[in-house]
Design goal:
alpha/beta, D-Maltodextrin-Binding Protein, domain 2, 6-stranded mixed beta sheet, 5-stranded mixed beta sheet, 10 helices, signal, palmitate, transmembrane helix, transmembrane
């Protein structure tokens, strides 16, 4: 009888321990789940990683946790965002976003604005645009928006003429004058930076050039000097993000404010892009 009571008591103790372990496990799981759910996940292209990381370190001091996910192309960030797998992305300007929505019917919108960069024409073979020979190979982006931006800069540099100088979505079919018979080579935007080693002239972006280490971004033969906020990079979210995730949306807005106002972020932009090669997209 005593043995039976002892066994019952042991079973009760073991059962109690199991219950406590389960409760503790649930508490830990719940805390981890909340921690993950409160984490802002921002997708971006590699050139934007350091500036966002600096802002993330500043935000952490205010209790805002940010996780960065890098994408090597310009399509996946919007696909992933539209699926709801990340909170926001930071890699595109408004014309690019407009075109992406037009082509895919994604439900995306900008929540805030970041920094913009000037773009340039670069060459390792020639010291000036006057030296560009007849039949030169000229590399430009293959996406409609950035190709338009490249062609506008080429026109401003007197190398080509366009059907409409005010059309920021001009493409190669809109070239009406090409006195040097330039041969255009279309590549994905991020690859323009690496094309500098082979082509005669390349349209590219300071951040990608600095990342690729192919040429000093300050050594442009021609530079777009317009501080056009149309080309400032955006913090983009799903259309329903604020409705479905109001608390995280507020956190993201605070993070964007930190990005815009942090002296450390400004210093990082000066360091990685060049003080004269970037501009504020916000007021």
């Amino acid at each position: 009888m005593a043995t039976t009571q002892k066994q019952s008591k042991n079973k009760f103790i073991i059962f109690g321990i199991i219950i406590i372990a389960v409760i503790v496990g649930l508490i830990i799981w719940s805390q981890q789940k909340n921690s993950v759910s409160n984490e802002l996940v921002i997708g971006l292209s590699p050139p934007f990683a350091k500036q966002i990381q600096v802002a993330a370190e500043e935000a952490k001091k205010q209790g805002i946790n940010v996780k960065i996910v890098e994408f090597s192309d310009w399509n996946t960030p919007n696909i992933t965002l539209n699926h709801g797998d990340i909170d926001a992305n930071y890699f595109q300007h408004q014309p690019f976003l407009n075109n992406a929505i037009k082509e895919t019917d994604f439900k995306l919108k900008p929540l805030g604005i970041g920094a913009g960069t000037h773009v340039g024409l670069y060459s390792k073979k020639f010291k000036s645009l006057d030296e560009i020979p007849n039949g030169a190979r000229v590399v430009i982006p293959n996406d409609p928006v950035n190709q338009g931006r490249a062609l506008l800069l080429l026109e401003q540099s007197k190398l080509i003429g366009l059907k409409d100088s005010n059309n920021h979505l001009s493409n190669l079919s809109d070239v009406v004058s090409n006195p040097k018979n330039l041969n255009f080579v279309e590549v994905e935007g991020p690859q323009t930076a690496r094309a500098v080693d082979d082509a005669d002239l390349v349209f590219s972006y300071p951040m990608y050039l600095r990342l690729a280490k192919t040429i000093d971004p300050n050594d442009a033969l021609a530079l777009d000097q317009t501080n056009n906020t149309r080309y400032a990079i955006l913090f983009v979210v799903r259309d329903d993000y604020e409705e479905k995730h109001p608390e995280k949306a507020e956190q993201l807005k605070k993070f964007i404010h930190i990005f815009q106002t942090s002296d450390k972020v400004k210093a990082q932009l000066n360091d990685e892009i060049g003080e004269k090669l970037w501009f504020k997209g916000w007021n």
